[in-house]
Structure formats: C-alpha cells, structure tokens
Amino acid sequence: MSRVLSAAVVSSVGLISKAFLYSGLCSLQVNGLHNLEDALNSPKRAAGQGVVTVCNHISTLDDPVIWGVLPTRYYFSAKTTRWVLGASEIMFTNPLLSAFFSLGQTLETFRGKGIYQDAVNVAIQRINQGGWVHMYGEGKVNQPCTYPFDKLGQAHLPRFKWGIGRILMEAKIQPVIIPMWLTGFEKLMPVGRPFPYNYFPRPGGHLTITFGEPVSRNEISQALNDFRNDGLYTAEHVSEVRRNVTSILHRGVESLGRSVSGPLLGGVTREP
Ligand SMILES: *[C@@H]1O[C@H](CO)[C@@H](O)[C@H](O)[C@H]1NC(C)=O
Q1: Considering only CA atoms, which residue is closest to atom 12 of ligand 1?
Q2: What is the DSSP letter of 184?
Q3: Residue ranges of the Phospholipid/glycerol acyltransferase domain (predicted)?
C-alpha cells in the first residue's frame, strides 16, 4: 500500500514540478540534461550500477522542483526517480509533512548526528540496489552571497559533508556521479516577505540547471585506493580517504559552478 502511495506522490510531485518550471512564471535554461539521462538509462544499471547526483543548495525549493526537467515517463519508474537526503528540521516538522516527504523518497537526515545515521545507511543500500540518490553536498541551504572568498577573490562552495565520502566508500559497485549546478532558485523564495507571500514562489526569476559530465571514475578509484570496509585500517586513514573522496565531488560541483557562474559563483551581483 505505502509503495503505491509513494509512487503516486513521487509522480504527482514530478508533474507539479514540471508544471511549475514550464509555467512561464520564470525563465529556465537547462544544460547537459543528457549527462543525467545517459547515466539513468545506462545498460550497466541492470548489473546494479547506481547513480549519484550532487549539487549546490541555494533554496528550500531546489528539491523537488529541479526534477521537473526530466521527461514525464521518468516519474513512473523506481529506477529513474531519486532518493534524497533531506533535513529533519526543515522537511519533517509535522506528521503530515513527514508522511509527504517520506512518501516522496526523502531520507530524514538529522543535523549533528554524523555519518553513521540511518539516512546515510539507507542511501548506501539504495545505491547498492542500483538506485539513484541525490545529495546536496553542503547539507543545507547556503545562498551564493554567503560563499567564502579566498585571497585571490575567488568564491568557494562551502565544504561538503563527509557522509558523501562514506556513501562512496561503501558502495559495492562504484556509481556514476553527475555533478550539477543550480542558479536563480535563491530568488524564488526570498526570506523576509510577509505572510502569506512567503509561502509562494516569486515569479519573474531566471533559473538555470546544469548537469555536468560524470566525475572521473579513475579519480574516485585512486582516492579509494583499494579501501575495503573490513576494519583493517586506522580511524585516521578511513577519515582521510573519506575526506579525499568527498573533496573530489566538491571540486566537481565547484568547477561546474565556475563554468556557469564565473569565479564568484554567482555570489555577488554588481550594482549598476
Ligand atoms: C589523500 O589525498 C592526498 C592528496 O592527494 C594524498 O596525498 C593522500 O595520500 C590521500 N590519503 C589517503 C589515505 O589516501
């Protein structure tokens, strides 16, 4: 029963997201969608190869709205609908929302509970079943205007949570990893507007969604360096591998971001 309900929620949310994205309220530019489609439709998935997508997180609306760019038939198959880690304190705040997001394939993630919590375990399981898991590497919304700068004046994406590294270290078959970059979503739900407008997206924005080429499998294999989860390594070694793997994904998303938004990552809008 709950499977049927879940499938219904997932496909309706997909359709609503699509209706919103293509309603004309906002302009939309999608780049490289074939990168995700190729990963999702790869024949290797039949042999259990999972898919990981990872991107910046600039608005609470990012998910599920971004998946509106996928062709409709994708909303009706478990292989082509994503599981996503979602923050408990934002998405699971009452029983109704909790039910809705759980049915919508959101894994309730608790800030501060670390990388060995249930949501991360389930994400690993899904990948090991050949599923698709989406992650917001930063683990929370960071608007581009808050990104830190380095000495050269380049903006950086805040660091990614180590759970990502754990997920890749424990995947039985290395998943395909597609980096993504979002822009404009932060302007859909600006904070500080009066009720009830704060509950509705603001029209007139310009949104872009970019899907990059898969992260290099070799680079990931090298960082994993024959790591086996067999308890033979020191805790320091394990956490260093985890950091290294996580930083490959961070670099992948950040460099895709530079190619779309420039060295400031969209963090500063120049005043005329
Ligand atoms: C982590 O990456 C650094 C830099 O590439 C490398 O020197 C180090 O050996 C890696 N650590 C592990 C445990 O693989």
Answers
A1: 241
A2: S
A3: 51-185
